[in-house]
Design goal:
Length: 429
């Protein structure tokens, strides 16, 4: 089964907790704090595996978790770092944040590894909190939670040349003749339901990868049929070979077919019409082919047309030479539909995002206030609240962040309820 798109939930490992411990050693009267730090949480990592051709494994494993870091130990010893969860994916895999659409990784190189979700930061042991005022701190940090979110994983085939056209125009036959690929060939529509790749050897020694893509239909750019699934695999191609059936099988008009396919390509979001296109007039051995070709050239006088009969491998060498020549002068096209992105940039798409405030105050009415914000919530989750010292330390941290004054300015009164991460506190000076 060919699977080229799947939604996955990823969860990096939680950082290990720091501990409270004191040095207990003979002849050392005041050993002091010696609680060690926890270990960092493991990352979720995607790695290219050239042996894989589909995302089928992810379809049946839609929750990926990395290992949590180990707890700290006495004598200032660190906990073990959590093991990374390494997921092997095919070459050409694109990973997006499902919520924001942000591209996290674009895996286009052999052996490439990318961190998808980062493990949580380790919690510090009480050794770090000693001071002249508090020589025996009873406080340590909890490990921070790892990143956790939903992603969309897409496979976009890595091919230099992509074949497009209506179903049953001869794309699979062309690939089978010019390469060693063995796509399914039959006399019914949509024989090809998944991309097929083949290595093409040009007579002069040059070579390139060709992709036979499932046939398009009118409305494909809007998702009709399996349009989006098919068009997605053309995005990485630098050259397009447009196969047109001049034999008028099934009563189709090649002039109209050419127009419709190009409209679908131009309507798709990745600017496919910017790629150089080779028009292949196929099935020239059939009776109406010459008349159709004449009409085609009259309708599109500026279009270079190569006459072929793929089933008997006739007229294919000029097509291969032309494709190889175009590949030498055609650069890679960016996958990102954003004019601000450099066309030569590779990898992750970075966009400017304004700095988020450390916290936000939400007035829920009836004396209830909610505090939200990534920095605040991270600090809260890393704070132990087991004893009075823990609470006092957390209160000082909140005051240092300016939360107390911000609540006062917003209208919060003594005795009001303040909620942080679903935990209620009473507000007071």
């Amino acid at each position: 089964m060919f699977v080229d798109r799947v939604k996955v939930h990823v969860k990096a490992g939680k950082g290990g907790d720091g501990i409270v411990a004191f040095r207990r050693e003979k002849y050392v009267a005041f050993g002091g704090p010696s609680g060690g730090d926890g270990g960092d949480g493991g990352n979720v990592v995607f790695m290219v595996d050239e042996g894989k051709t589909t995302l089928l494994d992810l379809r049946y494993n839609q929750k990926i978790c990395a290992e949590a870091g180990g707890k700290g130990k006495p004598k200032k010893m660190h906990g073990a770092r959590g093991a990374d969860c390494v997921v092997k994916v095919p070459l050409g895999t694109l990973v997006k944040d499902l919520k924001t659409g942000r591209i996290i990784a674009d895996l286009t190189r052999k052996g490439q590894k990318e961190i998808i979700a980062r493990g949580g930061k380790k919690g510090r042991g009480n050794f770090h909190f000693r001071s002249s005022k508090n020589t025996a701190p009873q406080y340590s940090e909890l490990g921070a939670p790892g990143e956790e979110f939903d992603i969309q994983v897409e496979l976009k085939v890595l091919a230099d040349v992509g074949l497009v056209g209506f179903p049953s125009v001869g794309k699979s036959t062309l690939l089978s003749v010019v390469s060693k690929a063995k796509p399914e060939i039959a006399e019914y529509h949509f024989t090809t339901i998944a991309p097929n790749l083949g290595m093409v050897q040009v007579p002069d020694g040059r070579s390139f990868v060709m992709a036979d893509l499932p046939g398009l239909i009118e409305g494909a750019s809007e998702g009709k049929g399996l349009g989006h699934q098919f068009l997605r695999h053309i995005e990485r191609c630098r050259v397009i070979i447009h196969v047109v059936d001049m034999g008028s099988n099934d009563g189709r008009d090649p002039v109209e077919d050419y127009r419709i396919i190009n409209e679908e390509l131009s309507s798709y979001e990745y600017r496919l019409m910017e790629r150089p296109q080779i028009v292949l007039a196929n099935k020239m051995d059939l009776e109406p082919a010459q008349e159709n070709l004449k009409r085609f050239k009259e309708a599109y006088p500026d279009v270079e047309v190569f006459e072929t009969t793929t089933i008997i491998a006739e007229g294919l060498d000029p097509v291969l030479y032309r494709a190889a020549d175009l590949l030498e002068t055609t650069p890679q096209f960016p996958l990102f539909n954003d004019e601000e992105v450099d066309a030569n940039a590779e990898g992750v798409l970075y966009k400017f995002e304004p700095e988020k405030p450390a916290f936000e105050i939400q007035n829920m009415g009836n004396g209830e206030w909610h505090l939200v914000g990534e920095e605040l919530e991270r600090s809260f989750k890393m704070s132990k609240l087991d004893n009075e010292e823990d609470f006092m330390r957390f209160a000082r941290k909140m005051r240092k962040m300016g939360i107390d004054q911000a609540l006062r300015d917003a209208g919060c009164q003594d005795g009001d309820t303040v909620v942080i991460c679903n935990i209620e506190f009473e507000f007071m000076e």
